[in-house]
Design brief:
The protein is of the alpha/beta class. It folds into two domains: 14-144, Udp-n-acetylmuramoylalanyl-d-glutamate--2,6- Diaminopimelate Ligase, Chain: A, domain 1 (3-Layer(aba) Sandwich); 147-308, Rossmann fold. It contains eleven helices and 16 strands. The strands form four sheets. The chain has an eight-stranded mixed β-sheet. A hairpin with a 2-residue loop joins strand 15 and strand 16 (270-278). It starts with 13 loop residues before the first strand and ends in a 12-residue tail after the last helix.
């Protein structure tokens, strides 16, 4: 892999306006009040169900989180008179809230609308159930708050395995990827791969919007894979599950010969299986990449041919005839 500035970055915030623009249909949200506060920032990935705060514990109000008022909160306020509602909402009105979201398509109490208009707090309403809304909102916010980095390479979907091809410029990453595409595999991104760490346990790669579906092949220039091979030859994002580093001849001393010890490389704190492939005349790299993906799938199912062969050798060395140097020969072996 080439030297890159692979230090992780985190957006750490998203405005309510961006949330409305990017996830309006996904979250099924509409703006009810507080339009003047659309540029307020959501600074925390987790949401807040404000039950404790409504019970009088103002210290539990977290301004940077989305305040979700579900059926239980709305029913609770419906049982109160107007004066008591204002008292319940007092802790919220004193905080610079990012926004308030009401789920299940419920009607917003007049006091909540008044509080949001007065404090320029965006008041949103979703037709989704609270559990569904929260799940989808967490998914949206995770995409903004997840640590991310940029890697020089090509990301492919090979037999359902996200394969990141890396190596020095001019080593043949794009040509190898093009051959894989012609075999029916799919391109995610060429040259620049943006990698996000989702929920601290999954790496997801994608290409920048500007160059998506495009590839640079030396001698051909820029080509559009979706136009040449159809949209089925590309995909927008893929989990990164295997790194294949293409190495020039003479620099392959670190390449694994047997495959007993699985090499790994760390990206955003996660260890990803690594395979080093020497590039030499006559080697069919696309074949090797496909076999590496198949081998990973077998390993995930518990099959490791190198370990199996090693176990058979160890078992054979413990047999008496091996220790004494005697071998059983067939008659054909003597001809």
């Amino acid at each position: 892999m080439e030297d890159n500035d692979n230090s992780p970055t985190v957006d750490g915030q998203v405005s309510v306006r961006e949330l409305l623009e990017l996830a309006n249909e996904y979250l099924e949200i509409e703006l009810l009040a507080g339009e003047g506060g659309l540029d307020k920032l959501i600074t925390h990935q987790r949401i807040q169900k404000p039950g404790l705060a409504m019970a009088g514990d103002a210290e539990f109000v977290h301004p940077g989180r989305v305040q979700v008022f579900g059926a239980s909160e709305i029913r609770f306020m419906d049982k109160l008179d107007a004066e008591r509602r204002r008292a319940v909402l007092q802790p919220f009105s004193e905080q610079p809230l990012s926004c308030v979201a009401i789920t299940k398509g419920l009607e917003a109490p007049p006091e909540v609308v008044s509080m949001c208009e007065r404090g320029e707090i965006p008041l949103l309403r979703s037709a989704l159930l609270s559990s569904t809304f929260i799940d989808r909102l967490n998914h949206v916010l995770d995409a903004h708050f997840a640590p991310r980095t940029t890697v020089h390479g090509v990301l492919m979907d090979v037999l359902g395995v996200g394969v990141l091809l890396t190596g020095p410029s001019g080593i043949g990453k794009s040509e190898c990827a093009l051959d894989l595409i012609m075999r029916g595999h799919r391109l995610v991104s060429d040259d620049v791969v943006e990698i996000h760490c989702r929920q601290g346990e999954t790496l997801v790669g994608r290409g920048p919007e500007m160059i998506r579906s495009h590839m640079e092949v030396r001698g051909l220039g820029i080509i559009n894979i979706a136009h040449l091979f159809g949209v089925a030859a590309t995909r927008q994002r893929k989990r990164v599950e295997l790194i294949i580093e293409l190495q020039p001849e003479g620099r392959d001393r670190d390449c694994e010969r047997l495959g007993i010890d699985q090499q790994t490389r760390q990206i955003l704190g996660l260890e990803i299986p690594l395979v080093c492939l020497p590039v030499a005349s006559g080697r069919n790299l696309s074949n090797l990449v496909e076999v590496a993906a198949r081998s990973l799938l077998l390993r995930l199912k518990g099959f490791n041919p190198a370990e199996e062969l090693n176990a058979r050798l160890q078992q054979s060395m413990q047999q008496p005839q091996f220790a004494m140097g005697r071998y059983d020969l067939d008659e054909g072996d003597l001809e």
